[in-house]
Structures are given as structure tokens and as C-alpha cells.
Amino acid sequence: MIRNTGEGTFEKDVLERKGLVLVDFWAPWCGPCKMIAPVLEQVAEEHKEEIEIAKLNVDDHSIIAQRYKIRSIPTMILFKDGKPVDGAIGMRSKDYFKELIRKHK
């Protein structure tokens, strides 16, 4: 399951979590963001024991987006034990995310 996060919950959802959390920085008007959403849903379902996925709407939560210097969307940042360790900008395949999980477990 993918959760929505923002200013009120980001710390608990991402920074205080143990293990891997992938944050998808997106916006409703972003075409590539809509295209990657089903890929992230599949990753969340197939790897639910290994990773959590959170979505952050950059329009609604610009303070967090600025903190992580988000300039293009979709941007995905992988956090491990609350620290950013990897990431990607733009469309990625399911295999990319599987490799990212394997690399950082």
C-alpha cells in the first residue's frame, strides 16, 4: 500500500521509520507522475515486506520539496533508516526499483 505524506506526517512516515521508504515527489498535473504511479503500486505490492512507499504532493507540501531540492518531478528519493541514500528523476521501470531495493537492503 502506498501512503500519502506531507508536512504533518513526513517525520513519522519517513524520517522515523526503520528500513527502506521510497518517497515519490509528484503533482496531480504531472503526466510522467501519472505514468509511474502503476509501477510504484506494483513495487509496493510485490515488495511490501522490504519497502514502504510514500507519495508527497509537491504543490501541497512545498516546504518539504524545497528541503530535498526537488526541481523536477517525478523524483523518487530512497530513505534508509530515515536518511536519504539514493534516488531517481523521471520514469523508471519496475526492474529499476527491484534493483534499488536489492542494493540497499
UniProtKB/TrEMBL annotation:
<dbReference type="InterPro" id="IPR036249">
    <property type="entry name" value="Thioredoxin-like_sf"/>
</dbReference>
<keyword id="KW-0249">Electron transport</keyword>
<dbReference type="Pfam" id="PF00085">
    <property type="entry name" value="Thioredoxin"/>
</dbReference>
<dbReference type="GO" id="GO:0015035">
    <property type="term" value="F:protein-disulfide reductase activity"/>
</dbReference>
<feature type="domain" description="Thioredoxin">
    <location>
        <begin position="1"/>
        <end position="105"/>
    </location>
</feature>
<keyword id="KW-0676">Redox-active center</keyword>
<protein>
    <recommendedName>
        <fullName>Thioredoxin</fullName>
    </recommendedName>
</protein>
<dbReference type="GO" id="GO:0005829">
    <property type="term" value="C:cytosol"/>
</dbReference>
<feature type="disulfide bond" description="Redox-active">
    <location>
        <begin position="30"/>
        <end position="33"/>
    </location>
</feature>
<keyword id="KW-1015">Disulfide bond</keyword>
<feature type="site" description="Contributes to redox potential value">
    <location>
        <position position="31"/>
    </location>
</feature>
<feature type="active site" description="Nucleophile">
    <location>
        <position position="33"/>
    </location>
</feature>
<keyword id="KW-0813">Transport</keyword>
<dbReference type="GO" id="GO:0045454">
    <property type="term" value="P:cell redox homeostasis"/>
</dbReference>
<dbReference type="InterPro" id="IPR017937">
    <property type="entry name" value="Thioredoxin_CS"/>
</dbReference>
<feature type="site" description="Contributes to redox potential value">
    <location>
        <position position="32"/>
    </location>
</feature>
<feature type="active site" description="Nucleophile">
    <location>
        <position position="30"/>
    </location>
</feature>
<feature type="site" description="Deprotonates C-terminal active site Cys">
    <location>
        <position position="24"/>
    </location>
</feature>
<dbReference type="InterPro" id="IPR005746">
    <property type="entry name" value="Thioredoxin"/>
</dbReference>
<dbReference type="InterPro" id="IPR013766">
    <property type="entry name" value="Thioredoxin_domain"/>
</dbReference>
<comment type="similarity">
    <text>Belongs to the thioredoxin family.</text>
</comment>
